[in-house]
Design goal:
By secondary structure, this protein is of the alpha+beta class. It has two domains: 1-34; 45-203, Mog1/PsbP, alpha/beta/alpha sandwich (Protein Transport Mog1p, Chain A), CATH 3.40.1000.10. The chain has helices at 2-34, 52-57, 111-127, 187-199; strands at 45-47, 62-66, 71-75, 80-84, 88-93, 96-105, 131-139, 142-149, 158-169, 172-183, 202-203. The strands form two sheets. Strands 1-7-8-9-10-6-5-4 form an eight-stranded mixed sheet, sandwiched between helices. It has a three-stranded antiparallel sheet with strand order 2-3-11. A hairpin with an 8-residue loop joins strand 8 (142-149) and strand 9 (158-169). It is globular.
Amino acid sequence: MKHLFLIAALVLVVAACNLSSKLKSTNNSNSSSSSESTTSGGEQIEQANPTAAQKAAIANGQEVKWDQQGITWTMPASWNKQEVRNETFSYGGGGAFLSGNISTMDPSFPTDVSIKAMYESAKTSQKIGKYDEVKWVEIDGLRGIQFRESKPEMADDIRRLEWQAYRKYAGQSQLVTLILSTNGANFPKHQDELYGILYSMKIVH
């Protein structure tokens, strides 16, 4: 009887191990299929998908290139060049602006850790009211963080829509920062064109 009990126990252990392996395999399969639309932390990644109003706001616009950085946008025809340099970019019109900045990082810089920390910091700021929108948004295949400042206390204060991402370009590891802004009073009027410009971006990476 003792031998029968040991055999039965061994059978149960083997069966449990096989079941555990199958469960792990299933979980890994599910994780792989969902990783296409979520971060490693489980947050959803949205694809840049402009609304009809956002598309209309830049319809018949001009193609503007930041040649030094391989970035292109569609902007309203009324927007004009402010400054375009190797690491800084500025265009604007009607009191609204797009500013770009490139920060070159050391090759060993942990970009994945950094971008996750930036996201968590922005979410914390959202909880205390600094931002009213924080999310992962992928534009032209490059995943970044999009965050929008809450309505400012004073109507003349600047309100910003920002997007940040890391990329590899020209052999460098870079942080790309884009800021689309206008004053608080005019933000609702310009909002569609700001989002339209941002989501029209084509970026080499």
